[in-house]
Design brief:
Length: about 120
């Protein structure tokens, strides 16, 4: 029997308001997940937990645009957002601590390891 992840769809415009709502209700950010969907889009999943109950937010993100950071709301998100920049080549706008696509990767690395479809690296 297949199990699906129940998610709440958010947009760049509603993301931070929804995160504030969850934080106010006592949830905490567990982690984020990036899923490479096609040549133009990734899914960003935000996983929150309270008393062993998980809530997941899903945002479709065009690869051609910078994603909004949530590190200004949840400081610890800076680490996973930097990991996504390194591994998928997606940039986050306004990161509170930005490793500029080199948290794990060296400058001579030409491709993003987990990106099925190529992304040209750019400054965030």
């Amino acid at each position: 029997m297949a199990t699906f992840l129940e998610t709440t769809e958010v947009t760049q415009e509603t993301l931070k308001a929804e995160i504030h709502r969850l934080l106010d209700a006592g949830y905490r950010l567990e982690t984020m997940t990036c899923v490479d969907l096609d040549e133009k889009t990734v899914d960003l999943l935000y996983h929150f937990q309270k008393d062993l109950q998980m809530i997941h937010l899903r945002m479709k993100q065009p690869k051609s645009e910078n994603a909004p950071t949530i590190s200004d709301v949840v400081f610890a998100a800076f680490l996973v957002e930097n990991e996504i920049q390194d591994q998928f080549g997606l940039c986050f706008e306004g990161l509170v601590l930005n490793f500029s696509n080199f948290l794990y990767l060296e400058e001579e690395v030409a491709t993003t390891p987990f990106c099925k479809y190529g992304i040209t690296r750019k400054e965030s």
